[in-house]
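If your schedule permits, I should be very grateful for your opinion on a structural question. I would ask you to consider whether the tokens describe a fold that such a sequence might reasonably adopt. Thank you for your consideration; the sequence and its tokens are set out here.
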Amino acid sequence: MPTTPHPQSTDELFQALRENDGRPYGRTRTVTAEELVDAAEQFAEPVPLVHALFELQEAYTYGSEPRKSPVVFARLLTLFDEQPDVFDERLRHQLFWRFKWVANALRALPEIPLASLHQWTKEMRDRYEKADLGLQPYYGQAYQLAAHVGEDTTLAYELWAGRSRTRLSDCEACEICERAQYHLTAGDDERALSAWEPVLAGKESCLEEPARSVSYALLPLLRTGRTDRARELHLAGYRSCRRNASMSQEIGRHLEFCALTGNEARGLELLAESRNLFEEVDSPLDLLGFLTGVEVLLQRVELLGHGELPAAGYAGRTWTVTGLRAEVRGRADDLAARFDARNGTTAHTDRRRARLESAPLREALELTLRPRSLEDVAPAAPVAAPAARAGVAVPDTLSELILQARTLDEQGHPDAHACWARLRTLMAARDYTHPDDPAVGPLVQLRADLLAEEANRAGEKDEFTDAAALHEEAAALYDDAGEPGHAALSRACALLATAEIPAQGADGAEAKAVALIAAHASLVRLHEETPGLAPYQEARLLRLRVTALALRLQISGSEEQVAPVFAEVDQLHAFATRHDIAGQISGALLLRAGTYALSGDLPAAVTEIDALLDRLKAHGPAWHLPRTLGLRGRFQFGLRDAQAAYADLAEGLRLAADWPAETADTTRLHGDLAEACMHLGRPDEALRHLTRSAEADLRRGSRTDAFCTYSNAARLSLDLGRVEDCIALIDSLLAEPDVTAGELDDRLVAQLRLTRARALHAGEDLKAATAEFVTLASESSGWDDDPGSHAMIAAETAVLLGESGEFGRAREVADQALAAHAQAPRYEQLSNCLRELARLQAQQQGSDGLSGALVFLADAGRIADEARAAEYEAQGRALDTALAYEHGRVNAYAGEYEDALAALEKALALLGEPGREDEGVGEWAECVRLAGAVEGLYLERPAPALTRLDAAVSRLTALGHTEETEPLISLAARLRDEE
């Protein structure tokens, strides 16, 4: 079925060719180009056919289909020989340029004999000489053929590189890459990198560059110690070629770079993203380069003992690293052998062997904000059992293991988790036999123990519904086992978990407070009605009673609820002290300190927690230290002492390394440290802590929390100007299985994509950013419960469409934003959007765009009126003054200088005279500058303009705002020079 309507005229054909030229390279563009050639053949005119054939050859060349490119070029050459007058100067230039494309295509096909390659280069020389064209491009192809074959390239290089460039020479960037590779092959990394510098610095570029050069430069950069540059270029370079079949060799080198820098997990992630290349790359030479890079990665992963990991490979079956490596090795070996047989050398086999024998250049180079190990990407990683600390022995016998788990659990010791995990594994075995040991008790008791432990873990992750159900189930099993104390404790835990289930609706907080009061009353009754509790069980019940009241106080903040919490804390502390239960003594003191903080007495909270820290250091339990230091750090935040908070949190994190992450609450420590770092002006360190916090959440299975934290990290990295870091982080997250399967909250995913789109825009990739924004605007239009977010997204989308010059579409999307704004006002965002659209249209279209620009400004005026009526105060510039200034600028762009000056006078009147501490002094100075420029330069009235500028300079100088005077002084000097 045709992908486009069949053109009925040459005008329609040329329009279709232009539209196809805007599509990305790939099957859609190629198929459309094939259809357009068929359509062009229906017209009697040869010119449309020539244009269509050129478009088709380009689609084949950059769509990695080298077998078809020469066939199309043969038709073009025949047309040129038969009807040379059809080819104007531009088409003739294209024809001779593409001799090089055919040479590249033929080299990429091992079935083409070497003699045919030499014959083609001779044909190129003969044609160039006949057309009186310089031969430097021919010598360039001769050199590339020698390098491909593996011959001595010294003479061929000199014959090419020593000649002056011509109009048909490869672009400067491509020639730089060839020269740099020549030095690289000679083993001179420094000289190669020196040659590459203009391309790597972005001074020279083309369709393939700098992405191609970057891929080759990565390892030389590492070998010469330029690790930061290698990291930066990897992130930007990979994004430039990701999923692009015509750049599969470059992608292979990025995979190799990951493998040789300790980033095997990232390599597997990028491989999964590049899975399409196994099927889409039709160029044998490109495929050889890609597969060799893949094999370097898989070989490294297998060498590290992870050959069983899943890997993305050829369609139609599931692959492990080991299985895919064997498949890739066979195919790549065959390709290398075919090229060598054609060329009569061993060059391709030798080059492949050298890459596979490369030793890692760095043990662990942190490439992204999300550094992960191979253990992290293993399927079982998110639910992996916590490991016991070094030095803590897990008993060999089953009876001893069960008893140790219970003993450690009674103490609240974190190593209990490892014992329970081991027992859970043993019980799952088909041949499990429960010990016949009175000390251990029946099997049903162990099942209850495991359910209770699972319930506690669910509660730690705020999965309160699951926790309550599991505790109830455990209580029933404890009843069956004849353990009433354990049953009562499980029911008490279920009561509190049920009360903590989030209530829905506007009065959710009040409903939860009521539920906690009821839970406390039930806990007291349960405590009173359950005789014979062991001391540790009774202490836990008392702790649950305190927790219920403390949570209620946290919700309400009511002063009258403080005393009941202290009373319960005192009861717990007294009981725990009497029975010497260290963990509960510590817990009581921690709750007391927290209650002081909730009541607003932070100094008393710090005093209390200092005493607790002294006790913990002297008597333990040591595993309480990280959380206690974390709480002290949060108290210091409340006292506005970020440095002290940082010190406590950093020490807490240091001590947390000795304990399982969930015990020490490593996630919270990293998150609070990020906040401390932001207060201290250390945003890069804050970014590291945010990503560590998110990764810790992922490991404990709290994926929503993890993605929220990662979203914050992505926005911070963008604010810091680390655009490629931001994009790489989000790309990694969007590739997660639950995201691709649509299982993660769609709004959270949309927030990630929105940040990515903003990063693309900040990175000056306007086309990709606009495409993502347009998609998001379309999706968010269906968010009936959140029209405000749609208004914001649509507003940003409209601006990007304006930057692209698509003002018709921008107008449509801006209207969507206005409609959503009517439901959920976003005064400032909409005003900013409409003013910017007006500026862009006037700037790009001049007087022709004035009417459209004024319509945007009229809409912005209505927004300002609405905001004034709603008594809305803008966070940035006042909407009325910003609007008046934009009227001035828009009219100036359109050549309506009197209207522009009047609008700027209005803006100055609205702003008023600046003061010494006036934050709007910059805006005032800019209005004066533009008014002076309009009046003095465009209306040619320099005298009043100079009076205005000199008065402003004098006033600003007197107020101490000397920096703002500089552009005014510069403009005044220009006006005086032109008088």
Summary: Residues 321-343 form the longest helix (23 residues).
